[in-house]
Amino acid sequence: MRNESLTAGDLFKFDYFKCLRSEFAKNECRICIDLCPEGAMVFDRTKLTLDTEVCTACAACVGSCPTEALISETFDPNRFALEFSQQKNPKISCKENVPCLAALSSEHLITIALRKEGEIFCDLAHCEGCSINRDNRILETIETMIDEAERFLQIFESEKRIERVRELPDDAPETGRRGLLKKLVNVANEVNEETTMTELMNLSGEKQPLKRILLKNSLKMAAEKFSEETTVEADFSFVVNKTIDAQTCTNCQECAMFCPTEALSILQDNTGIIFQMGKCIACSICDDVCQPGSIHSDKTFDLVTFTFDRMQLLVKHTLEICEECKVAFPYRGGERVCDRCKDFRANHGDLFTMARDME
């Protein structure tokens, strides 16, 4: 069944079951569609699919996918983040070690910055004339990810910075994408870092994207450097804080049921909702599925809460049995009748009046 979810070309795969558009049909995520220079991500009968005849396996979309549904056979960004952190080479370049800098997300760049000693350089000198950088979309995406990574690092006053190389040296050798692709294939087939593979193996089976767990592990390693004030107003593309209005929440629990990473979960006694910011990927499915609009996004970001997956109780209800339908509902005082039955009375009460009049 799992293999049936994969649409695969020679060097690139799309995992339908990981895609947010398959998790919840009303989700509007279209990052990969807008970013792909070849238009290889398309809708076929309302389902997002990969056109393997068009895809060139450039991997420019890999870093942008919040759920890691896009997979390059030649380049694993999670493994690269760990291995590059252990190497002396400070430069990330599409001519040396990555198929495209856009294959790395903000989370990967933060992980690299936290784990690697010394400076980090992102080589942007080749982006302007790159064949896949149409309308400058790829370069803008890379720049946005670097900016976001630096903003995140500044939260705990980290001295780490990600420098950008924009000028091409006169003596720079010409390396075509085919040559780099061959090099990446060889690298992908070699297992030369036992510690790297061990860490990745330990993360398998999680509902969270691996890049998120690597980021939190990296933050835990740097936790002693956190400043005393870890709560800030910050807007990041890969995580948001959540709040729930207890007065309008009906305890339907659909927000937790549809959450793809289990950032939202249900209390054991079914009386409320718990939130873990460290697991949230800002997919907005919970916002879309909440019919009364009780759940909201909050730009308040706490580094400790995020890093250590601290649980936040968003809402807790006192449940009573409705006198009409005999179903448990959040009781807020007054008549012990649920909102659904009150609404039915208000809209269809004349039916019962007519029945009484006929007796």
Approximate strand percentage: 15-25%
Mean pLDDT, rounded to whole units? 85
Going by helix content, strand content and strand pairing, the class is: alpha+beta
Order of helices and strands: EEHHEEEHEHEHEHHHEEHEEHEEHEEEH
How many distinct helices? 12
Described by strand count, sense and barrel closure, the largest sheet is: 3 strands, antiparallel
Q: What is the overall silhouette?
A: globular
Q: Span between N and C termini?
A: 60 Å
- The largest sheet has its strands arranged as 1-2-5
Note poorly predicted spans. 182-194
Instruction: Give a count of the beta strands, DSSP E runs of length 2 or more.
Output: 17
Count of all domains: 3
- Helix fraction by DSSP (H/I, runs of at least 4): 25-40%
| Rg | 25 Å
Protein name: (4Fe-4S)-binding protein
Keywords: 4Fe-4S, Iron, Iron-sulfur, Metal-binding
InterPro entries: 4Fe4S_Fe-S-bd, 4Fe4S_Fe_S_CS, Fe-S_Ferredoxin
3D architecture notes:
InterPro entries: 4Fe4S_Fe-S-bd, 4Fe4S_Fe_S_CS, Fe-S_Ferredoxin. This is (4Fe-4S)-binding protein. Residues 46-75, 240-269, 271-300 form the 4Fe-4S ferredoxin-type domain. There is one protein chain. With 359 residues, the chain is α+β, with helices and mostly antiparallel strands. The longest helix has 19 residues, at 137-155. It has helices at residues 20-23, 31-35, 77-86, 106-115, 137-155, 177-188, 194-202, 210-221, 254-258, 285-289, 303-307, 339-357; strands spanning 6-8, 12-15, 41-44, 47-50, 70-72, 91-92, 120-123, 162-165, 231-233, 241-244, 264-266, 272-276, 295-298, 300-302, 311-316, 319-321, 328-330. The protein has three domains: 3-224, no CATH class; 231-316, Alpha-Beta Plaits (2-Layer Sandwich), CATH 3.30.70; 321-357, no CATH class. The strands form seven sheets. The chain has a three-stranded antiparallel β-sheet with strand order 1-2-5, with no helix packed on it. Helix content is 32%, strand content 17%.
